[in-house]
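Progress report, Aim 2. The chain analyzed during this reporting quarter is listed below.
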Amino acid sequence: MQRALLQAQVIIDEATGRHITNQAMLQQVDMLRDAMHHGCYILDTFRYQSYDEEAKDQVLGHSFSLSKVNFLKGTSSSNRNKLLLQQLENALDNLSSMILHMKECVVFLMSYTHLYRQPYSMHLLLGNCMFSRQIETELVVNFLLNTQIHACEELEVLPIVGPSKVGKSTLVAHVSKNERVQDHFSKILFLCDHDFTDNDLTILREGCALKHQNCISNLNKDKGWLVIVDLVGELSEDAWNVLYSSCKQLMPSTSKIIIANRSAKIIEFGTTKALNLKYLSLEASWYFFKTIAFGTMDPKMHPRLAHVAMEIAKLLDSGFIGVNTVACLLRDNFDIRFWCKVLDFLRRFVQKHVSKFSVNPFDLMNQNKPVHLGRMANPFEEVVFYCEYQRYSYEEVPKIRLDDVVYRSVKALGKSEFLAWNSPIPPYYSYIVTCEVRELKQRYAKRKRSTENGITLC
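Predicted structure tokens for the chain:
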């Protein structure tokens, strides 16, 4: 399995570093990547199972992951080994078969031009680029560069839909910075929620949303514009009609529109099939989380830490912000006791909400609904999450980070704003949360403290 994973990694790294335009080849690379993530996950489960003394008390972060990671629950040690070995053999057979069928693709792969890339370490590479979205990127780029043979009076529109924090803004930001896209359009405009306060959308005329202007392309009046509409709130049909009419009046017929939103209602605005973004699979999320959390360290040299990290990853949602935040927290505190405290804290947090409300608390946070987070370092206080929003890179952000409040002993009382995450990749958003730090009643806090002291963390 280790040799097969290495072979798959070589092929995927080579494919990721090239401009692949063939959709069938992109799909094969994507399938190989999924098989590699699955094989890595099963191998790590087998490798670190001896540290899983509390497997029966696992709290899973997502209901859809039950069939994938909970097949060991309630089994004896010998049966568990047999099941794992069977899973490992199946994963190896699948991965080996895919590598074998990739031989022809590898030959054709060499014909595609290289992308320029700095020689990053893997954790820096994953932390500073868009993870596992190559096929989606090329689908959007192909839509933008595809010129219709017959002239059409209607502007082409691509809807991109997906849940909160799945990476819609990141995808369109990366596409807009693609050299082929910038060479193809004379102007690239971005519109967000506050741009729809004016019914006549004078922002299109004034150029206030201009993000890119191709001076060479401006000499050719046939070059179209690209308008990217990236919204958090829902877009009404009336507002869309005003925008679309304005675009048709002001822009060349070769212009195109991308509209990104979490609501599936925007699909009806499209002239082509919508792109539906989904969260990372459990296996892909673990691969990303492990790479960021361990940095330059080899997880195989720290098996107990790797086991704890794996348990933490199961509790998190598969959104990039949460995974990044916790992974960076662990990397900055590379200590088994701290990692075990984080694991115990998150287990209690998830289990409490699931047992009381029958819903994952991370799902509530993604919907901007109130959630009681608690404080790991201070049982006499709790943090109540209210909402999260984003700010642009040029806007001022709070100095106190949310993870310092939740996982460390930073002093903060009352309702305030905290910095949840600074994205190192386009569009470089800062994610701000509104929370309230409350003092708990003394009786409840003492009971909470005694319960924590009476349980082994790892």
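The two ends are 28 Å apart (CA to CA). The beta strands are 156-161, 187-191, 210-213, 225-230, 256-261, 275-276, 371-372, 381-391, 414-422, 430-439. These observations will guide the mutagenesis work planned for the next reporting period.
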